[in-house]
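hey so i finally got around to running the thing on that chain from the lab meeting. sorry it took forever, my laptop kept dying and i had to restart like 3 times. anyway pasting the input first so we r on the same page abt which one it is
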Amino acid sequence: MGLLNFFKKINNSEPPIPDSEKKYYQSDSYYTKKAHQGTQFEHDVITFEERKNTSIPSKNGLYVAEILLLEYCSYGTYPHPKDGYPGFWWFEYGIRNVGAKLQSLEERGFIRISSPSESISSLTIPQLKEILGAFNLSTSGKKDNLVQRIKNNLSNDDLSDYISECKYTLTDLGKNELSENEYVPYVHKKKPLGITVWEINSRISKEINWQKHFRDMFWKEFSTQCQQHIKEQNYGFYRNTRFDMAMFLKEEQKYYDAIALLSEVVFWDLTGCGNSFNYNSFLEVEFGLNNQFGNGFLFPYEKSIMTVAPGIVREIGICQKKLNLSDDDLRAFLTENIKVFTAPVQFFTYDEIVDIIFWERDKDTSQLKKVYDKAKKRFDPQNPNILSTQK
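ok and heres what got predicted. didnt touch it at all, straight out
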């Protein structure tokens, strides 16, 4: 089927985009019938109407893409977002005419056009200050202060000349719909485990109230993947999955549990163990033919790939702040958790691992160089785990 006939097929299910709306879209040539053309991820675009034949609607009759549109309407930027409608509406969800879908949601009572006072949150700080100045009101404070001051002092009639276009907001029906199907925006943004929103949607018909417990499903998938990675000695993949789990828990404000998992990520980062791990190959690659240091990538510290990523240290610090933990409290908690981990190779003691976290945070390269030099000197290829040699 040629491209012209392809778009004729689309137009049979979607009204044409009005000329006045086209500035919010790319040119027609942008909307190809294949996504990620020329890459290993290339695939056919499945139109919204085609998706309806294979996906499960919500109890209120909305499909995945329509639920996601509710999420974007809740931001106060639709219709007509400043930078236009992003390409994912077509390439991921098969919607060419976003405006028509928005109008349909409005007609069915999920969204409505907001009042001028409801729309001011979408204005920039200079625009808000301009309004306040015009009515001789204070222009000091952060954006939230400016917005609230306008709402407290000005009517919709006062604001009508300053709001060029009121945006959509969710009705109670729309809010409930989004709340009951929060898996849609979550999977769209996070794409955890490489699972698509369509895979999640297909499970709805198999599990009662699954939409409300989708995070439990993800946790089970995380755990299953971890078991498989350990079985296959893919320690790099295992480490990455544990990091994803830590961030998952952080989203739920389970900061102690997140730190515990982040401490395990640090532990594996400092083992040098990667995927398809084989100890003899590890020695050959990292330490040379005669198991001598100098040919690998672990030592010295300044050249090592066996370090704690700055992002991990930062995430631990964020959780520490959320929990209002002192450094001593954090150190004790990290030590308690790290002591349960084991690996085929371990260069550092548990106490050293905790020290490294703090030294990385404080950028104490002098101490870091010393502990790496110490680990290098005491490493014994016949006893690759430092714990087995400790008294």
